[in-house]
Amino acid sequence: MPTTAPPRPGTRRPVLEVRDLHVRFAGRVGLAQGLLGRKPTEARAVDGVSLELYPGEVVALAGESGCGKTTLARTIMGLERPRSGEILFEGKPLGRSTKALREYRRRVQMVFQDPTAALNPRQTIYESVAEGLRVHGIHRGPNGEPEEELVARALARAGLRPPELFFLNYPHELSGGQRQRVVIAGALVLEPEIIVADEPVSSLDASVRGEILKLLLGLRNELGIAMLVVTHDLGLAWTIADRVAVMYLGRIVEIGPAEEVLTRPIHPYTKALLEVVPEAGGIDRPFLTGEPPDPTRIPSGCRFHPRCPEVANGTAETAGVLERCRAQDLGLQELRPGHFAACHLVAQRAGVASAPPPPAID
Amino acid sequence: MTTVLSIRDLAVTYRTQTGPVPAVRGVDLDVHKAEVLGLAGESGCGKSTIANAILRLLPPKTQVTGQILLNGEDVLAMKPGRLRAVRWSAISVVFQGAMHALNPVQRIGDQIAEAIIIHTKAGEKEARVRAGALLEQVGLPPRRLRDYPHELSGGQKQRVMIAMALACNPDLVIADEPTTALDVMVQAQVLRLLKDLQRELGLAMLFITHDLSVLVEVSDRLAIMYAGKIVEEGPAVPVFHEPKHPYTRALAAAFPQVGDRRFRMAPSGLPGDPPFPGNVPPGCSFHPRCPLAFEDCSVIEPEMYPAGDGRRSACLLVKRGEPVEVGP
C-alpha cells in the first residue's frame, strides 16, 4: 500500500501503527445561516495519515504550525477522537472504552512543551510523579517495590539525583530544565513503551536543551522506548531522530531516514522548510511567502501547489505536470529506499506514476 | 562611524522583598549607525533589563548606575519631558508577543496614527497618510488600516508593531525577541523584513534573543551575556563559528545546523542551570558549568581580554593565549 510508512528490512513488528487517520474539527455557523441549511466549515486537521513507529525508534514529526502535527500526536494519545482510521498498538486496534484507553495510556506517555503548565503548582515533586501510579492503581513495582522506591528510581533515571532531595520540593523551586525532568520522570514511572513528546525543549533555556535531548536519547538507547517527537525545529530532528516525517496541511508529504530527508530532501516543501533554518549570513536566501495554510480550505490537487516554488518558477509547467499539480490529489510514493514523498514533479522525473491519495471519507 | 548608543559600566540592581538582585553587573556596549548589534543570552542573564534600562522602563527604586549615552546625551539624566520626546522618536522598540501589545478595540490605523500625532507635529490627516505608507513599507496593503488586531495573523501583527516602531524615524530600534512567538516560516519573513528596513533606513538596531542562530543571521556584531555581564563580543560570523568563550560555544551548539555531523545523534548541552541573578558564583560566573575550568577560574574574575580581529572575551584561557576548546 503506497500510503504506509517504509517497511524496514528484516523488520520487527511496529509497536504503534496509524492507518488512514482522519481528524476533523467542526466550525461554527450562525443561527440564521444554520436555519438556511448552511453546513459548518470543517477543519481537516489530520487528513489521511499513515505512520508506523518501531520499538526503540525516534520519529520526528515536523511542519509549520497548523499542519496537524500536534493534533496527530494528541489523537495517538487518545485525547482526540478520530473521524475515521485506525490506531494499532502492538498490532491490536485501540479500543474506545475507558478501560482499554486507561491501559493504553499507561504504556504510551506524553511529555508536553511547557513543564510549568504540566505540573500542578501545589503538588510536591513526589506527588506529581506518584500521581500516575495512583491513577493506574499501581501500589507496588513488579518485584514488590514500594511506591517510594518507584518514584525515586524514576526521578534518578530522569537525572534528578539524589531523588530524595527533590521529593518535598514544589515546581516553583526548580529550574525549567529540572521541571521538564520531573515531567519525564512522571512518564517513566509507568514504564511506558512509547513516549510522545510535543516540542519537549522549545520552552527551555538554550544551554539546558541539549541535556534534556540527551536524556530522551538515553531512554531510547537504554530502555528501548520508542518516541514520537513533534517539533518545528529541524535542527532538533537532526540531533535525535532516526526517521523524519514532514507534515503539510494534515498529510505527511515526505518521510524517510533522518539523514536522507534532511540532507537529500525530495519534496519542495521539505526543501522550503530547510531553507528557513537560520544560518550565518543567509538572510538573503529565498523562502516561501504567504501565511501558514488554513486547514478549513485545503486546495485541490497537490495541497502544496499554491505555495510551491516549482509551480511558481514554471518548472512544473515545463515538465508537463502542472495540470496534475492543480487537479490530482496524491499519496506517498517510495522514491528511494525507505524514503517516501508525495510530489507529481519528482514522480515524473523518476519515471513513475504518482501514487493514489489515501482513501477519502465522507 | 557614528555611535548612536553608547553604554558605559551599566549596573542595574532590582530591589525585591528578598533583598537586592544585581541583574546587570557592569556592561559596556556600543551600537553604531546602520549597524545591528545582537545581544544573546539565556533567561535571567540581564539582556531584557538592558533594553528596559535604555528606555528607562525599569520599576521605580531600581538602582541604576553608569551611563547610557544616546547620540551623546545621557538617558539616565534626562528630565521626564525630554525622556518623553526621546522615546519613540529617537528610540523605539519591538517587543515579543505583538498580539498583546496592540489595543484590541482600536483599528490599527488609529493606533499607528496616534503615535505619529503625539510624537511629531503632524496633523491627523498627515498622520493617516504616513500610517498607510508605513503599512506598505512593512508589506501590508494600506486598506488594512481599517482592520482590528483580531483580523490579522500573528506575523501581520508583528509587522504592524514594526511599522509603529518606525513611525517617527527613530535613530535606534530595540528588538526584544521579536520573532519568538512566531512560526518558522513567518519568523524568517519577519527577520528578512527587519533586516531589509534596517539596511534601507540605515538604522542602528539592538537585537535581543536567546536564539544565537537567528541572531547571527541578522547581526553585524554579537555580544554574549551570562549572569549580568558580557562574556564575549565581536563580529557576528566569527563569534558564532569560532567562539572564544566556552559559553558562546555551548550556546551555538544548542541550535545545531542540519547536516553538521558533530551533532548527529549527539545533542550537546551544559550541565546545571544558569545562575540566579542574586546568587552568582565567585570568580568566573560560568566556571561551575564550564568544561574547561581550571583552579584560577573559581578565584579570579575575568575581564574582557582582546581576542584578535576586533574581538574580546572574558575567559582566562584567552588571557593566557590558549585555545578555547576541548582538546582531542
Instruction: Count the beta strands of chain B.
Output: 12
Low-confidence stretches of chain B: none
Taking all residues together, what is the mean pLDDT of chain B? 91
Series of H and E elements of chain B: EEEHEEHEHHHHEHEHEEHHEEH
Total helical elements of chain A: 15
Q: Can you summarize the main beta sheet of chain B?
A: 8 strands, mixed
Structural class by sheet pairing and helices of chain B: alpha/beta
Class of the largest domain in chain B in CATH?
A: Alpha Beta
Biggest chain contact: A-B, 47 and 50 residues
Under CATH, the topology of the largest domain in chain B can be stated as Rossmann fold
Q: What fraction of the residues of chain A are assigned to beta strands by DSSP?
A: 15-25%
* Assembly category: heterodimer
**Name of the CATH architecture of the largest domain in chain B:** 3-Layer(aba) Sandwich
Helix content of chain B: 25-40%
Widest β-sheet, arrangement of strands of chain B: 6-7-8-3-9-10-12-11
Computed over alpha carbons, the radius of gyration of chain A is 22 Å
Main sheet summary of chain A: 8 strands, mixed
Report on the structure:
The complex is a heterodimer of chains A (362) and B (328). Chain A has 15 helices and twelve strands. By secondary structure, chain A is an alpha/beta fold. The N terminus of chain A is likely disordered. Chain B folds into two domains: 239 residues, Rossmann fold; 67 residues. In chain B, the strands form two sheets. Chain B has an eight-stranded mixed sheet, with helices on both faces. In chain B, a hairpin with a 2-residue loop joins strand 1 and strand 2. In chain B, helix 5 crosses helix 6. Chains A and B meet through helix 7, helix 8, helix 9, helix 10 and helix 11 of A and helix 7, helix 8, helix 9 and helix 10 of B.
